Fold these 3 entries.
Entry 1:
Amino acid sequence: MNLLSLLQEKLTAALTGLVPHPETYGALVRPTQDERHGDYQANAAMPLAKVLGQKPLDVARRIVERLALDDVVEPPAIAGPGFINFRFRSDWLARQLQAAAADDRLGVSSTARPRTVVIDFSSPNVAKPMHVGHLRSTIIGDSLTRLLRFLGHRVITDNHLGDWGTQFGMLLYGYKHYRNEEALRTDPVREMARLYVKVRQEIAAGEDEAEEAANPVAEACRQETAKLHAGDEENVRLWRLFMPWCLADIERIYRRLDVRFDHTLGESFYHPMLADVVQSLLDRGIAQKSEGAVVVWFGANEPPALIRKKDGAFTYMTTDLATIRYRVETWKPDAILYVVDFRQSLHFKNLFDTARRWGYDQVELVHVSFGSVLGPDRRPIKTREGGAIELEQLLDEAVARAEQQYERTREERLARGEEVPELGADERRQVAETVGLGAVKYADLSQNRESDYVFNWDKMLAMDGNTATYMQYAYVRNRGIFRKSGAAVEPFRTEPPEPTLTHPAERALALQLLRFSETLQAAAIEYRPHLICGYLWELAKSYSVFFQNCPVLRAETSVLTRSRLLLCDLTARTIQRGLDLLGIRTVERM
Ligand code: ARG
């Protein structure tokens, strides 16, 4: 049940016949900030007053007269200049909650209009180990995948690996000059990383850094790349040798992060199609030859995009154009999302513009852009030596810190009289992994993706506040109630009772639980997982007020106990589902 859409539909119906474009005004419903003004508020009367040439208050009255409230909402109150305040009937809320409890989807319906959406995310350049810069794309993309799938869309995930660029020229050069056979046998992944770093240092140490062309190592690497692209037998053979090593490295991280891809079609996959892309763009007059290169122009004052360089090399842009063609022809998507950081905004603007001119104007192309992860100095996060922080080390540290914290807080929890289970070594490791990785993911996803955020271990592992740790403990405590009561959860899902919503805290919790649906809807429309985090945080707060005010196991009657256990179970399930949509796991006890 989507409460917000229900009110919007009712308002739209009331406006139909009264004003042109009723749905535009019908959409003007928002949750209230203050519960004294009801649950939701419509401010349609103010803009409509201008359109109709009447006083807002009169317009509001006419709307209210025409509203079909059924048994859903109390008679609305008109407040201030013409706000219409809606308050759901508690008995109706109770029935919706009962229905949600009996539903695996917690009352969230599948979309009536499923779309096919390709999500391009993570997409690292693979000659080097994954670093912290790949974190955001990977977890935002994964969360959007989970969310859109849950809402009933057909999602195709594609990891557009950088597996063909100049970094392979560097690996080829490094391999030919500096390889350590022994290291290649024992740990080829590390050896690849070492060779990459070594060659980079060589290039940086060259005579004239600014004038890269004059740098002989850089030039040699470029030639290795060019030979690879031209199909040189040895370089292609070596590339085939390197790729599985590079992939093993990133796959380990994906497994750990619980991220999967339907397809991993890297840049190399498109190489054979690039000449044809350039020809097609030239034939249609979209691209022009310019001083031996091929470019696409945008505006008079804007720099053109290169799609073939003077030396014949194709570019990132050419590959992305081929990728759009391939995806549209193969999967016929309604939309393609690119979860890539904001620094590539111009690239995507130019790419989408070119693709539309090229005829791909039916597919919605979206750059789901995000900001940087900052260090304590508020600059993009780096190691102390100034290098990129490897993702694997970051995840290891998260888990180690989660483990330490678990030990520390155990004592405090015992002192507070909390029930703390005795966990074996395996279960402890499991808890640390779940809490540690959850903290990293949630800290990222709870930020509006377009903002930068400061990476802060203490904040992300805090037991209090809008953190995964807090949600995970709320979940576990909730499960503990069932263990303690001896009540089985199953009946609350197969034959849930109709809950009693007499206490304001019960009603507030019920309302928040029923807002899950509209939250997911909004998060999916805007591609903003942080709306789910904000929702979970509000839910956890409503739950805690409820828990402080409404005894569950010691309620006055057994009927009331059952009603409150239902609220508990539904809260736990909603937290678990919400976290799952963020790619975050829960444990049953800790
Ligand atoms: N490999 C690129 C990078 O690391 C990101 C690719 C994003 N996807 C795309 N289709 N361009 O910057």
Note: The first helix runs from residue 3 to 15.
Entry 2:
Amino acid sequence: MDYDIKDKALADSGRLRIEWAGQQMPVLKAIRSRFEKEQPLKGTRISACLHVTTETALLIQTLKSGGADVAICASNPLSTQDEVAASLVVNDNISVFAVKGEDDKRYYQHINAAIDRKPNITMDDGADVVSTLHDKRQDALPNVIGGTEETTTGVIRLKSMARDNVLKFPIIAVNDANTKHFFDNRYGTGQSTLDGIIRATNRLLAGSTFVVAGYGWCGRGLAMRAQGAGAKVVVTEIDPLKAIEAAMDGFDVMPMAEAARHGDIFCTVTGNKHVLRKEHFDVMKDGAIISNSGHFNVEINIGDLKKMAKSEREMRPFVQEYALPDGRRLYLLAEGRLVNLAAAEGHPSCVMDMSFANQALSAEYIVKNYKDLKKTVYSVPQEIDEKIASMKLDAMKIAIDKLTEEQRRYLASWQEGT
Ligand code: ADE
């Protein structure tokens, strides 16, 4: 088995952390027990490119329990939990290619190492494996029967590949399942992003002005939680509908050119490029904190910051100071990469339970159905999404009502009015 990780000696602490996370992942646990018996992934090679966290380790163990031969590389250079990578290698015999802080060259070497395993199924978070396979590693394409995609940014990339008719195998968009984005993107990003900003800076949120760029599911969760922590929240948007929603949710909505003057803390969650740039840095307050929780490190124009600064220094881990000639200091967190995974631990296990249940069941679905699937992007089948919702609710020990016969008839009829 080959691997590239920081240090195998970290495996024991990794194992305990994985066990801790597992206590909050009952749905994945139930899937794992079934997989152990039924072996639905027997003989399937899966190459996953995911954030190497405790929750991901539990997904990888589940896939392995189902009979898959799994390799994993990191989906972001800063998100790997090195103890977890070590535990997967030492305790689970998994090929892991991930080191926290790896440079871009090593990051792509790791993606290529995962592709060298000639996967039948790809499991991406951001579509880097699929795009590398189509672009530079077409040698490995003939083995692939399908793939899954975890995140909004990846789904957007893959849908544009499908639109251009270049996608060479079917993809299941895990992100689009209701049991994924309603919870992971909203409550997961909301909590973990604040956690990352607070761990990195130890700044008080109460009374501060917190600017959230983008009011998708992640932005909604982040704005809600920042408000809960006492911040005055400002939202910026480009979509009129989302801007109305943010306004009616009680947030101030304004263009970034204006928000930039007011903000104490900024966080981008748009999925787009250069949302914060020179014109905004020019008017920010001294001490402003700038961060990103969108998938790629493109949302903040770091090149602009570097050009404007007369000096730079690392103030604390994950906090880089840019001193400007006029005396203002701006602070960039986690090199503009996902602050929730770089400076904290990503989303809590309780929401990742549903996201990764979707991953495991989508992999099983691909194995069963790949012959009938086209080379396009599919949603997670509704039965899978609903099944996961019911399993999670059961695990939360919450009971709900059932339709009566009379109500069922009423909903199905068009004759009955008042
Ligand atoms: N994405 C966001 N949070 C995550 C986590 N805890 N594990 C894996 N991927 C994630």
Note: The CA atoms of residues 279 and 390 lie 48 Å apart.
Entry 3:
Amino acid sequence: MKAAILLIISLFTTVVYAQQNVNYDESKVPVYTLPKLLEGSKGEKISTTEQWEKQRRPELLELFTSQVYGRTPTGKIDVTYETMVENPNAMGGKATGKQVKFTFSNGKKKIEALLLIYIPNNITGKVPVFIGYNFKGNHSTTSDITVLYSPTLQLIKGPDHHDRERGTQKSRWNYDKIIDRGYAVATMCYHDIFPDSPELKEYSILSLFPGYGPEVTVPDEWQAIGAWAWGSSRIVDFLETEEKIDGDKIAIMGHSRQGKAALWAGAQDERFKIVISNNSGCGGAALFRRKFGETIAVINKNFPHWFCNNFLQYNDRDEELPTDQHQLIALMAPRKVYVASAENDLWADPRGEFLSAYHAGKVYQLYGLKAIDSDEMPKIHQPIMEDIGYHIRAGEHDVMDYDWECYLNFADKHFRN
Ligand code: GCU
């Protein structure tokens, strides 16, 4: 019965999306001019890394803050960490598994989040780490029966929803491969930071900050993507206290809506040394101005709690946004950034994802780094691994072993020499 209801809900969602006026025809992509990367707001030429860092980068960061993702508060929220489970013999003995409860508090109210970490056992010294949110609870990423259920999932799904089953998202988290390659991995359920529904905002981290109210009152007020990005930085704060983790080698990997949040996290927090966006699409790596697949109007309608209110003014006026996503990707420079697409994931506009990685190259070149040298998309399974990386793989919107293989190769290239 439950399965039938779920099927009806998912068919309904697909129909709603399909009814929207979405373009999948490359010949109908409008002619567009991208906002300039290397020109200041008053038309000044930006030709040195110093001008980029002192002038242009802050200008762009401010535009993304005020027009797209909202302003991350600068105030701190108290956090305590409690190790709930430590298993030195996880994954058949090759890793140490740790589960740490974060308790965020403003003195009146608390929010709990649960981090799961696996650290390889056979390496002496510190190890690099991949961090990333999961969608369905830490228990969904593994069959390890010691892994606890993430606290907030049941707010979203109800206590006996099938997503409570262990291992349902295992295919997205190839822990064996990651540990065998000598990396640690840390994951948290994204609902712990902002349960992904406009109705559940009062359970989100936003509610701990001064001035919080259920209604948005300021047009650049932060929302869910801002909160998820903030939460990734809190994971970094914790990992910096972990003896075995190399705090200079932190990669963030986000899929889809979490690919959007990973890019926003990487733009704001330079402790992320590799930023990976997997199939992140509209509001992630894809260029808005192509209006291919999901557009600003569509995403704002379906996910009113993701972006700040100022972003609403660009509904059906994508070309009037003063920024575009190649500028977001360029904010990672000179750190490394990787964009990945899937061939059948047209909703996310693979070509638009590729082109923003390509156009971000100008800033990398300013640093003397290697960007993507052609605006021809590479063929399926022909990854580009320069200081900016890109691949398109066969298949659907997902995180697959092939994606991890590429991310590990990219991390080896940049973290291991
Ligand atoms: C929806 C949404 C996308 C998002 C995706 C996901 O398809 O429209 O913008 O990236 O969900 O997070 O899986």
Note: Residues 57 and 331 are 7 Å apart (CA to CA).
